Amino acid sequence: MEMKNINNIVIDNYLRLKPSVFFLPAFLLITIVFSLYNQDALSTNAYIRIQKESFFFINYYLGQYPNLQFNLTQLGDDLIFLSLLSILIIYIPKIWESLISSLLLSLVSSYLLKKIFAVPRPAAVFDHSSFIIVGNTLSGHTSLPSGHSITIFAILTILLFAFMPSKTGYRILWSFFIILTGSVLVFTRVGVGAHYPLDVIIGAIIGYILGLTGIFISRKYKVWSRINDKRYYPVFILLFLICGISLINRIMIDNLVIYYLSLVFLTISLYKTITIYVKK
């Protein structure tokens, strides 16, 4: 199947979405708020208190695999996840139109919500020797919501509906796979000691909403439609080079497998972009 046809399939899949898809995530957020209210846990201290046991439990068991957790949690970083998807700029630009809008909204939403709630991270509350910390010790008042979780689910939501199968059975399996993958990735934030369980759950739901929002924006407006215009490929070539240098710098610091993988995908995208631009 030609890539152009796949891009058209993605466009068709996005056009099938109805505003009602926002009902479920909105209901889940409302349910969480009511649950916290019923537990008298809307204050910062109570919010942390009701999650203390679950945080230590999840952190302990996931923390037994620190290298795996540290690699997987990097996918909540835009640079890493988007490098893996960089080739889609060339072949399935419609996905990137949605990604750009969604991730810009995610960046703003994450920053504002963290400022509003100002929930201290686990390392700012608990003794550092009482739980597992992998990577840098994060001790600011920026725990709720998890920005990594927002990013992960925003991206996965866009991929979920982009490649949604037509048959019901396959749709269920595909949706289950995406949700399971997203859950594994976002809970690494608890595994590395950076967030409480509700931080990542709430972040995931917000990410889902913002992923859908990005899709609807790309449907209605042509803000990023020039992504597919080869005249703008030099911009992507420059961005790929900058991202590649950043990844090399990270490899020199942490030497993680996921960094190498992202660099490989980015290098392939850079090569293809240059080749197509030169031949245009």
Automatic annotation (TrEMBL):
Domain of life from the UniProt record: Bacteria
Gene3D superfamilies the record matches: Phosphatidic acid phosphatase type 2/haloperoxidase (1.20.144.10)
Transmembrane segments: 21-37, 72-92, 99-117, 146-165, 172-194, 200-219, 231-251, 257-278
Keyword Repeat carried by entry: no
This protein's name: PAP2 superfamily protein
Alphabetized UniProt keyword annotations: Membrane, Transmembrane, Transmembrane helix
Classification via CDD domains: PAP2_like (cd01610)
Organism of derivation: Parabacteroides chartae
Domain Phosphatidic acid phosphatase type 2/haloperoxidase: 99-215
Keyword hit for Transmembrane: yes
